TrEMBL record:
<dbReference type="GO" id="GO:0030596">
    <property type="term" value="F:alpha-L-rhamnosidase activity"/>
</dbReference>
<keyword id="KW-0378">Hydrolase</keyword>
<dbReference type="Pfam" id="PF17390">
    <property type="entry name" value="Bac_rhamnosid_C"/>
</dbReference>
<keyword id="KW-0732">Signal</keyword>
<dbReference type="Pfam" id="PF08531">
    <property type="entry name" value="Bac_rhamnosid_N"/>
</dbReference>
<dbReference type="InterPro" id="IPR008928">
    <property type="entry name" value="6-hairpin_glycosidase_sf"/>
</dbReference>
<protein>
    <recommendedName>
        <fullName>alpha-L-rhamnosidase</fullName>
        <ecNumber>3.2.1.40</ecNumber>
    </recommendedName>
</protein>
<dbReference type="InterPro" id="IPR035396">
    <property type="entry name" value="Bac_rhamnosid6H"/>
</dbReference>
<dbReference type="InterPro" id="IPR012341">
    <property type="entry name" value="6hp_glycosidase-like_sf"/>
</dbReference>
<feature type="domain" description="Alpha-L-rhamnosidase concanavalin-like">
    <location>
        <begin position="359"/>
        <end position="457"/>
    </location>
</feature>
<dbReference type="InterPro" id="IPR008902">
    <property type="entry name" value="Rhamnosid_concanavalin"/>
</dbReference>
<feature type="domain" description="Bacterial alpha-L-rhamnosidase N-terminal">
    <location>
        <begin position="173"/>
        <end position="348"/>
    </location>
</feature>
<dbReference type="InterPro" id="IPR035398">
    <property type="entry name" value="Bac_rhamnosid_C"/>
</dbReference>
<dbReference type="Pfam" id="PF05592">
    <property type="entry name" value="Bac_rhamnosid"/>
</dbReference>
<feature type="signal peptide">
    <location>
        <begin position="1"/>
        <end position="19"/>
    </location>
</feature>
<feature type="domain" description="Alpha-L-rhamnosidase six-hairpin glycosidase">
    <location>
        <begin position="463"/>
        <end position="828"/>
    </location>
</feature>
<dbReference type="InterPro" id="IPR013783">
    <property type="entry name" value="Ig-like_fold"/>
</dbReference>
Length: 945
């Protein structure tokens, strides 16, 4: 059925694409297809298809109606934009009649093309308004305090509460909606069927400030008569273990927001006679424990199937022995809002690749890929048989599961059989692990591959990017990057999915944010997390080192290179998706942060040596995991200050805030001046007063000493345009010289690795950028691939075939995306896809061709694509015997500047015509070894002979 539908769909798109004029498709509201939202003016978008080249929209008309029948020009009762001139196809705010809670809005759109001809109306789409005011929540917070249970030697893991209530639904049900949230995690069932398919709901927030809810259409799950509402709760981020608090011996190690997980649910039904009824969580619900004996995100789940209260989630169950649910007071200031992000889901299943026998009757299953998720098991045995599942990313050379790098995360699931002769299946509900290998112990027979199924979980961000070359190492690297993003974009952007950390480290998030936008549509994912970031802003205006920000360790405050995520992430989302709401809503918080920087700089607009000696570690994390002498963290902090001021100026401009545009433009200039005066000499070389740092005690790797003349310094200065344009080339030369001195090997850490290749490209050193990119020697991306990685590692040599695990246990994650930020260069430079206007309304295609003559070690063919807000951009180049072949796809309603690498003497064909006579593209000129053409929508092929 699914296949048929998608065939039909593609057939539709196909006819659309062949037709003249414009066809709007992929109608979305708040980045989602037919969502529930509580935005009072939700933003609409569509993508345009056309069979003609050079097509643009000159006007559009949107209709919004409260019923499908009313969705006509004559009857549209909520909004009719009439013919509205303009190119906009996204971020269009609804400006019709005010919308009240629960309203379903049906909408469609049509577009006028370049000739002023209107196209067909799109198919109808819809959105539904959630509960807009907190007082529409009549349900109580209910739960069962089991905190006194489950105290072990190390871990305190109480069982999961089970809650239930039977309700009577009358005949003639028309519509039913279930609104649910929890402090903790919930799974909700109606008559034994799980509501929705999301995982780890309702997500992690600063629960004192806000909690999100989900809305489910449960109309078809209810029947006339008795119905069972049932829910299991877990401790999750609210009441469970978080981060490294146990490892660092923080006084609090769990229950950072509260001890007792709580449920709030409201079932609202509407009958065909117009009457309504609601069923709410309250003191009439019943509560008990069940089969889930332990349940924790970091530590895993224990399920005793013998304790399953059979039928508890269905009607007719006798709950007379269950306790009364306890009602808990609300915090009046806590907001309850619609979950704005993409739901966390099982996005893929993975089958076992191989099974290895282990001593003592255990087995290790290799899933063939490092990922984040859980496994489902299928086993048979006697009642009381206990299956223990442990998870690891790697094996020791002797075949043992390597779990040392999980540190204090127990990451163990246990299933106790009930003894069903037919066999039993189980999967945990409220935990996840980062792993490739699963060790199964306690089974009385040799299992087959079907004993375990890998369930990949992650925020369901649509795949938008692709990257393929004729170089196997590079293809594997790209796969590693995407898998690592999937494993770490789980409700929030985390550092890693496996050890006792898994928190929203802001430094990792900011260096990787732009890369993420090339792989997947992360607009709504960041819509959610940027709120977490702003909620976590510290009193002094700084952004924390992780968000959400419970007190995992007293000394965690803020850090240069990390805290700037508060500016950089919204900026990247604005650039990729044209999102200005994130700017205007976040402006007060972002401005406070800029004030914090100004205050910190004490009127000097530069951070001199030891400016951050008061934080822990001194100076912050600096160029984390870099090699050699340290780049002064204060210098980097100063660069970031200028960069943030620039981004603020640009964002102010985007929302027509002239005053702040000027203010931040001036600050940017002041910082640059002060930074160069302090940190560079007359020749443009970066320097620092190394003596000021003394013996470096308290600084990260401070004993190595400090110098301003580092790869990281120049890479960042070029990337952030700290130096005067006229000096850029010089900085590039310094960078090249430093690399040369280092045997053409990178020495950059988290802050230096991302800008390194872009900075080389920007200064005319593409060949060297490729050399680093294609290297297989330590330290490099290729080295990791050569060591058998399927994800990006925290360290280049987290594991080596030669030395095994050099840094075991301490800090050694095999799924850490920070170094994956090279993705930005892969798409932006190697494929040359660069937005010149937010949302790719206009963009450059300026591919940088890999050096010739490297054979299999090089790249001769590269193809990248990206589905933007406007549609799919493709950039493909291939070096053949007869010259260079470049293929480009420009989506409808956009204009591209295509920079074709070519020498003056070379002949260029555009779609088989001589380029100077081409009717399909407009010749703009030549510049630095490129012929530049402008092209509207369509597919183009250029041949450079
Ligand atoms: C590590 C985290 C993260 C990094 C911080 C400073 O433990 O995993 O990647 O940002 O420390």
């Amino acid at each position: 059925m699914k296949i048929l539908v998608s065939l039909l769909l593609s057939a539709c798109v196909f006819t659309g694409a062949n037709a003249k004029g414009l066809d709007p498709t992929y109608l979305r509201c708040e980045y989602k297809v037919n969502p529930v939202t509580d935005q009072k003016s939700p933003r609409l978008s569509w993508e345009l298809q056309s069979g003609e080249n050079n097509q643009v929209q000159t006007a559009y008309q949107i209709l919004v109606a409260s019923t499908p029948e009313n969705l006509t020009e004559a009857k549209a009762d909520l909004w009719n934009t009439n013919k509205t001139n303009g190119r906009a196809t996204y971020q269009i705010e609804y400006k019709g009649k005010p919308l009240s809670s629960r309203t379903i809005c049906y909408w469609k759109v049509r577009s006028w093309d370049k000739n002023g001809v209107p196209g067909k109306w799109s198919d109808a789409a819809s959105w539904e308004m959630g509960l807009l005011a907190k007082n529409e929540w009549k349900a109580d917070w209910i739960g069962l305090d089991l905190d006194h249970l489950g105290k072990g030697k190390i871990y305190h893991l109480p069982p999961a509460p089970y809650l239930r209530k039977q309700v009577v639904i009358k005949k003639g049900l028309k519509k039913a909606r279930l609104y649910v949230t929890a402090l903790g995690l919930y799974e909700f069932q109606i008559n034994g069927k799980k509501a929705g398919d999301a995982f780890l709901t309702p997500g992690w927030t600063d629960y004192d400030k806000r909690v999100y809810y989900q809305t489910y259409d449960v109309t078809s799950d209810l029947k006339p008569g008795e119905n069972a509402l049932a829910s299991q709760l877990s401790y999750g981020w609210y009441a469970g273990y978080l981060g490294y608090s146990l490892l660092v011996q923080n006084p609090v190690v769990r229950a950072f927001y509260g001890k007792v997980p709580l449920l709030k649910a409201q079932l609202e039904v509407e009958y065909s006679d117009g009457t309504k009824e609601s069923f709410m969580t309250d003191q009439t619900w019943k509560a008990s424990t069940g089969a889930i004996l332990e349940s924790d995100l970091l530590n895993g789940e224990t399920y005793d199937a013998r304790l399953e209260p059979t039928g508890w989630n269905k009607g007719g169950f006798d709950d007379s022995k269950w306790e009364k649910a306890q009602v808990f007071a609300d915090k009046p200031e806590r907001l309850i809002q619609v979950y704005p992000g993409p739901p966390v889901k099982v996005t893929q299943t993975l089958e076992v690749k191989t099974i290895a026998d282990r001593p003592g009757g255990s087995y290790i299953f290799d899933m063939g890929q490092n990922f984040a998720g859980i496994v489902g098991i299928k086993v048979k045995g006697a009642a009381g048989d206990t299956i223990r599942l442990r998870f690891g990313e790697k094996l020791h050379p002797d075949g043992r599961l390597m779990t040392e790098n999980l540190r204090m995360a127990r990451a163990t699931d246990t299933y106790i059989l009930k003894g069903d002769p037919q066999g039993e299946t189980w999967e945990p509900q409220f935990t996840f692990h980062g792993f490739q290998y699963v060790e199964l112990a306690g089974l009385g027979y040799k299992p087959g591959k079907d004993a375990i199924l890998g369930l990949v979980i992650g925020s369901d961000t649509p795949k938008t990017g692709s990257f393929e070359t004729d170089n196997a190492m590079v293809n594997q690297l790209y796969s590693n990057i995407d898998w690592t993003q999937r494993a770490n974009y789980i409700d929030i952007p985390t550092d890693c999915p496996q050890r006792d950390e898994r928190i929203g480290w802001t430094g990792d998030a900011q260096v990787y944010a732009k890369s993420a936008t090339f792989n997947r549509d992360v607009a709504s994912f960041f819509t959610k997390w940027v709120v977490d970031l702003n909620d976590a802003q510290r009193k002094d205006g700084s952004y924390p080192v992780y968000a959400p920000a419970p007190d995992l360790r007293k000394s965690d405050t803020f850090s240069p290179g990390w805290m700037e995520a508060g500016i950089i992430c919204p900026y990247q989302i604005y650039r990729a998706y044209g999102d200005t709401r994130m700017i205007s809503e976040g402006w007060p918080a972002m401005s406070r942060f800029m004030d914090f920087l100004e205050k910190r700089s004490k009127g000097g607009y530069v951070f001199k040596e030891n400016a951050f000696a008061d934080i822990d570690p001194k100076g912050g994390f600096g160029d984390w995991l870099s090699f050699g002498k340290k780049t002064p963290p204060d210098m980097l902090a100063s660069f970031y200050y200028a960069y943030c001021a620039d981004l603020m100026a640009e964002m102010a401009g985007a929302v027509n805030n002239q005053k702040d545009f000027q203010k931040y433009t001036q600050i940017g200039a002041k910082v640059r001046k002060a930074v160069l005066a302090h940190y560079s000499d007359a020749s443009g070389k970066f320097k620092t007063d190394a003596k000021a740092y003394g013996n470096g005690a308290g600084y990260v790797d401070g004993a190595l000493g400090f110098t301003g003349h580092t790869q990281t310094a120049y890479a960042n200065a070029i990337y952030m345009k700290i130096i005067d344009k006229s000096q850029t080339k010089k900085s590039g030369d310094f960078l090249v010289a430093l690399l040369k001195e280092n045997g053409n090997k990178l020495g950059t850490g988290f802050l230096g690795a991302k800008p390194l290749l872009p900075a080389l490209s920007a200064t005319g050193n593409t060949d060297l950028a490729y050399r680093l990119f294609l290297s297989k020697e330590f330290p490099s991306w290729g080295f990791e691939v050569e060591q058998g990685s399927t994800t990006i590692w925290e360290r280049w040599d987290s594991f080596t075939k030669e030395d095994g695990f050099k840094y075991n246990a301490a800090m050694n994650s095999f799924s850490h995306y920070a170094f994956g930020a090279v993705c930005e260069w892969m798409f932006g430079n190697a494929a040359g896809i660069q937005a010149t206007q937010p949302g790719f309304a206009t963009f450059d295609i300026k591919p940088e061709i890999a050096p010739d003559g490297m054979g299999k070690e090089g790249i001769n063919h590269l193809k990248a694509s990206l589905v933007t807000m406007n549609g799919k951009v493709v950039s493909e180049w291939e070096r053949g015997n007869s010259g260079l072949n470049l293929k480009v796809n420009v989506p409808v309603n956009t204009v591209a500047r295509i920079h074709i690498p070519s020498e003056k003497s070379q002949q260029i064909l555009a779609n088989k015509e001589n380029i100077s006579k081409s009717k399909s593209v407009k010749l703009i000129g030549t510049e630095n070894g490129h012929t530049i053409v402008e092209a509207g929508s369509g597919s183009y092929e250029f041949v450079v002979k």
